[in-house]
Amino acid sequence: MAPDSLTPSSGEIVVNGRRYRLPRQPTVVVCVDGSEPGYIERAVESGRAPWFGKVLTRGTSLLADCVVPSFTNPNNLSIVTGQPPSVHGICGNYFLDPDSGKEVMMNDPKFLRVETLFPSFQRAGCRIAVVTAKDKLRGLLGKGLELGAGKACSFSSEKSDKATLAENGIEKVNELVGMAVPDVYSAGLSEFVFAAGAKLMERDLPQIMYLSTTDYIQHKHAPGTPVADDFYAMMDRYLGRLDAMGCTIALTADHGMNAKFDANHQPDVIYLQDLLDDWLGKEQARVILPITDPYVVHHGALGSFAVIYLPAGTTAAAMAAKLAALPGIEAALSKEEAARRFELPADRLGDLIVVSTKHKVLGTSAARHDLSGLTEPLRSHGGISEQRVPLLCNRPLSADVGQRAWRNFDAFDLALNLVA
Ligand SMILES: [Zn+2]
User: Fold this and answer.
1) What integer pLDDT is reported at residue 373 of this predicted model?
2) Alpha-carbon span 284 to 287, nearest angstrom
3) For residue 330, how many C-alpha atoms fall within 13 Å in the half-sphere facing its CB?
4) Ligand 1 mean position to 284 CA, how many Å?
5) What is the C-alpha separation between 23 and 28, in angstroms, rounded?
6) In this structure, what are the phi and psi dihedrals at residue 76, rounded to the nearest 5 degrees?
């Protein structure tokens, strides 16, 4: 089916206040988890990534800001809604649900406050494919899609063997891809995403495809290191295949990544719960780390962003000032200040938001972090220092975009509206 036979009369859709042209070619948006600027360039320099080399010189190569907290879920949801968390509501992987008073994962689609782009594209007649590495994102990304053969599919590498037509719009994924279910802590989990994307494009020709990887490699290996170059060379091969099939490909990252260890190669941590217990009494304040998810082996739940709930009678402004004065703290803000500055939903934040500096991370209590899984010196994210990410497209800009401040959640706008 030619894409124009599917095009409604206007040829565009409006979602969450933004306008998108319907795809003229199959359009693939890729979120490379933790891809700080430098990974792609170093792989190109070492001759391992010829497709990326072409994109950097002949396509569109921009730098964009991601959403703070620079975590996976808030940014993936921004990319697929085109809006910051103040609009879509997902401001962490993990939060204190004000309705239940419990610390819960923010994976449940009920927490998403607006539609993603995908249901609108589907209603306009597009076939949709959404593939993620970890299953934690699948429910949110697939929300509102009518799943089924020839319509839309949404599945993860992690649970690829469990995919069914009813739940995921696809079955026998491992057979299609020719790969078994990869280990959740492996480069293979991300490779599966690309391998599945290439196979799906060959077989089903979806008009809109979203591929989202995991940052297992980026947490352990800096740009230009052999393992990182291998990873980007792998990606280069699959993206080259999608390009050869005529796809428009836009690529960005959910967040960057920085070294977070000290001179002894130990994680450089400020343990906020321990500190607040000292200042206010044991467990008077409650520290929540929104990086927390079921997979913390590679970062020990240590990131650069924390949320604090204060006991009644404690003034947020005074406590913010006290925290901001500590070495290693980049910002300590009241809920209202943080909501304004970072475009976050105030009703899902604690009383205080704390961000650490580039090479520091924030923990709860030293005793509560299991760091035994950290086989390499810690690299992590979450802060303002990990906000800068690449925004690439395999086609050159065709629109006059002036001096625009790019966000990673402009990726669909770029791919559909602004390139040749
Ligand atoms: Zn991530």
Assistant:
1) 78
2) 10
3) 19
4) 31
5) 10
6) -60, -40
CA–CA separation, 79 and 196 (whole Å): 20
The closest alpha carbon to 254, from 32, 410, 38, belongs to 32
Distance CA 7, CA 36 (A): 36
Identify the pLDDT of residue 15.
97
pLDDT score at 13: 97
What's the residue count for the chain? 420
Is residue 375 a contact partner of residue 349, using CB atoms and an 8 Å limit? no
Query: In angstroms, what is the span from residue 269 Cα to ligand 1's centroid?
Result: 20
- pLDDT of 9 reads 62
Report whether 96 contacts 288 (CB < 8 A). yes
Residue 182 has pLDDT above 70, yes or no: yes
Place of tokens 């090479």: 359
> Ligand 1: distance of its center to the CA of 259 in Å?
15
pLDDT at 200 over 50: yes
pTM for the predicted model, two decimal places: 0.95
Separation between Cα atoms, residue 136 and residue 286, nearest integer Å = 25
Question: Does residue 253 have a pLDDT over 90?
Answer: yes
Distance 196 CA to ligand 1 centre (A): 20
Q: Which amino acid is at 408?
A: N
Ligand 1 centroid to residue 214 C-alpha, Å: 6
Ligand 1 center from residue 106 Cα (angstroms): 14
Catalogue the long-range contacts made by 373-377 (C-beta closer than 8 Å, 24 or more residues apart).
373/296, 373/297, 373/298, 373/300, 374/267, 374/298, 374/299, 374/300, 375/220, 376/219, 376/220, 376/221, 377/259, 377/261, 377/265, 377/266, 377/267
Residue in the structure block whose two tokens are 């057979």: 175
What residues pair up with 362 in beta bridges, in sequence order? 270, 303
Which protein residues have a CB closer than 5 Å to ligand 1 (ion)?
33, 72, 215, 254
Ligand 1 geometric centre to CA of 257 (Å): 9
